[in-house]
Specification:
Helix content: over 70%
Number of strands: 0
Distance between the termini: 25 Å
Structural class: mainly alpha
Shape: globular
Order of helices and strands: HHHHHHHHHH
Number of helices: 10
Largest sheet: none
């Protein structure tokens, strides 16, 4: 517990001091919200009857939270390994669970602040988002989303040895996933084969669950299916992460 507390405190201080990363972590999703909100203001998604903002806000929020979870731990593990911090931790009594657990606690806090800020801005009169009655479901859904994508970030951070490689691999996975999973564009307007492809992407399940909780799209089964999909991916990513984790560049 002392190792977990120390690592969490150190991670928090490093996160707060990095003002540039901190700014873009919270500002990037809001940028998409502003762009989509102003361009498609007053328009509706024909297939669902929802306003375009109500439909897209859930997807952008999901992508922003997932993106922060992936990049946050992937860059940290890469940097700690390059600076030999992981090797020193390995020589101490601190277990691997303390390393991952400390980053997980920080990722949950970041995700919570992102969500509150994003929804608060989206509810301003200029955007006019009206959260659905099931909005409390956002809490467990987003927590499970952070868990799933943090484990994906562990895998990326275990393979990548430079900031450039972390950015390249993470963007290679997250950007196409955003477009193909319905974060930026409604899946209903995509060809059937693309909707089928999206079923093998964890962001699709996070989008669907958040869409129901935040905008009331679909029914409660979307939340259950979304959580089940995220849980399945989390188990797979967790197993792979345990097998591939490297304390040093060679082991």
């Amino acid at each position: 517990m002392s190792a977990y507390t120390a690592l969490t405190g150190a991670g928090y201080r490093a996160q707060v001091r990095d003002r540039t990363t901190l700014f873009f972590t919270f500002a990037f999703p809001l940028l998409f919200l502003v762009v989509f909100g102003l361009i498609f203001k007053g328009q509706a998604v024909e297939e669902s009857g929802l306003s375009y903002l109500s439909y897209t806000a859930a997807g952008v929020l999901s992508w922003g939270v997932a993106n922060a979870a992936v990049f946050g731990i992937a860059f940290t593990l890469m940097q700690w390994r390059s600076d030999d911090i992981l090797r020193l931790i390995r020589m101490s009594p601190a277990p691997l669970t303390a390393v991952i657990g400390s980053r997980y606690a920080i990722a949950l806090v970041v995700g919570a602040v992102q969500s509150l800020l994003f929804v608060g801005v989206a509810m301003l009169p200029v955007f006019g988002l009206e959260p659905a009655s099931g909005w409390p479901l956002l809490v467990p859904v987003l927590a499970l989303g952070v868990t799933t994508f943090l484990l994906l970030g562990v895998i990326i951070g275990s393979f990548a040895d430079t900031p450039e490689s972390v950015a390249a691999v993470a963007n290679f996975l997250m950007l196409p996933m955003a477009f193909l999973s319905g974060s930026f564009f409604p899946l209903d307007s995509m060809p059937e084969w693309l909707r089928t492809v999206s079923l093998v992407m964890p962001l699709r399940y996070l989008n669907d669950a958040v869409s129901h909780a935040l905008a009331g799209r679909g029914d409660s089964s979307d939340v259950l299916v979304g959580c089940a999909g995220l849980l399945a991916f989390a188990i797979v990513f967790g197993a792979v992460a345990m097998k591939t984790f490297r304390w040093t560049r060679s082991s």
